[in-house]
Design goal:
Blueprint: H1 5-16, H2 23-35, H3 46-53, H4 56-94, H5 101-118, E1 127-129, E2 132-134, E3 136-140, E4 143-150, H6 158-169, E5 176-181, H7 187-192, E6 201-204, H8 206-213, H9 219-233
Parallel strand pairs: 4-5, 5-6
Antiparallel strand pairs: 1-2, 3-4
Helix pairs in contact: 4-5
């Protein structure tokens, strides 16, 4: 339904003066206009006339019904999202008992890509560029992050991190990275990786991933917090318990 500026102004004026337009007045007005050979289509619109017949209580009821529908839809979407996360978490936990660590690593990549897709991060699966393998990438807040995932039995040494940093630095000045090391990195590596150069990535360990998959914190909020701490404090490694308490926004 559309209405001319004149009709809207007239209706608004009457409402402000506690004298709203009634449907029978519109019928009378249409009859008078027809007598002089004119017709305003918007005044003949059935939706327009119906809206005039609704009292304030009915309009309020419709607003409440619409709000209830939206809340039910939101709850259904959240329930489906929780079910997907629970399934991913189950698959992730099962990988701890996988004797073939190479197979576990490939399965982990699939879980991560499904997680990124679920959160709307537009993930790209593993790909190759000249001379190197990239485990994947995603986009958050219009920034692209390269992803490296390693699931070794022991904490990773600095050399592995240096390779990843080289991949990031070989792209653009705006490229960022997320290094997922399920068993973390050595203390020496965490100190050395920030010495002498600005860090361009941050670390995610197995505990971080478990907390995200269990919905303790939404992935987007987790990544934003980590990126901010990287920018403000230059910290590549941040224990999960140090993240901003009470923040559970998704």
């Amino acid at each position: 339904m559309t209405s001319s500026p004149g009709s809207i102004a007239g209706i608004t004026y009457r409402q402000k003066n506690n004298d709203p337009i009634a449907p029978d007045e519109i019928d009378t007005l249409n009859g008078l206009i027809l007598q002089i050979g004119f017709k305003f289509p918007d005044l003949w619109d059935p939706e327009f006339r119906t809206s005039l017949e609704m009292d304030g209580g009915l309009r309020a009821k419709q607003h409440v019904e619409q709000a209830v529908k939206q809340e039910r839809l939101r709850a259904a979407v959240q329930s489906e999202r929780s079910a997907h996360l629970a399934e991913l978490n189950k698959q992730f936990l099962a990988l701890h008992d996988e004797p073939d660590r190479q197979a576990a690593g490939l399965a982990l990549e699939k879980i991560l890509n499904r997680l990124f897709a679920l959160e709307g991060l537009d993930p790209r699966e593993p790909f190759r560029v000249v001379g190197e393998q990239i485990d994947g990438s995603f986009e958050l807040d219009h920034e692209v992050y390269l992803v490296e995932a390693k699931w070794e039995h022991a904490p990773l040494p600095e050399s592995t991190l240096l390779v990843f940093r080289g991949k990031i630095e070989g792209k653009s000045a705006y490229t960022r990275g997320v290094f997922i090391a399920l068993n973390g990195i050595t203390t020496q590596a965490s100190q050395a990786i920030v010495h002498g150069k600005q860090p361009t990535f941050f670390l995610v360990n197995g505990h971080d991933l478990t907390m995200v998959l269990s919905e303790d914190m939404g992935l987007r909020q987790f990544l934003r917090q980590r990126q901010r701490m990287l920018c403000e404090e230059g910290r590549v490694v941040v224990p999960y318990h140090e993240l901003w308490s009470g923040s559970r926004a998704r």
